[in-house]
Amino acid sequence: MPSKIMEQILLEDIKTYGRHRGNDSQYGFTKGKSCLNNLVTFYDGVAASVDKGKATDIIYLDSFKAFGETQGPAPRSGQPQYQYRLGSEWIESSPEEKDLGVLLDEKLNMIQQCVLTAQKANRILGCTKRSVARRSREVILSLYSILMRQHLEYCIQLWGPQYGRDMELLERVQRRATKLIRGLEHLSYEDRLRELVLFSLEKTQGTPYCSLPVLKGGL
């Protein structure tokens, strides 16, 4: 119990410090500033710099190791002809990096992010197919919305597919998931969506979760 009380005290102190000492660029522990806000704000600035023809590099400092372990300078992405160092350590160049879960390459291209997102959701779908015996509408839709759809729509306002082939990669996940529902296997994808009161991912792109029906009773 004392440890829980101490955790709550520390949490409140951190929040208070963030509110009073933070600035417009502060997103951690700040109310109303999500990962999406952080990414959009940051990459708007990067894109504006690139549009002006400026040489632009991004240096990522890995704070994951800040508590307990140490590691060398984090990779950077951008112009490979420029070299940087922190102290005596040279920072290696990387053509792509993950930023808050979104993969971005040196050309600000999001194609690989679409591929990785579809792969992750398909792995979860495959596990669901192998392990869930009861394939009623309530069970499959609940698992899909909780375990898979969140990956398909995480910060999609930033990396939303620009090409039909990339959109199809994501759409295929929902197509396979709805086909798992017992009694709907024989219907076409469009008919399954109408029956389940769902929309295609292409139509809901940029409006996460709004198309998922509210299920009563849960699992």
TrEMBL record:
Highest taxon of the lineage: Eukaryota
Organism: Grus japonensis (Japanese crane)
Name of the molecule in the record: Reverse transcriptase
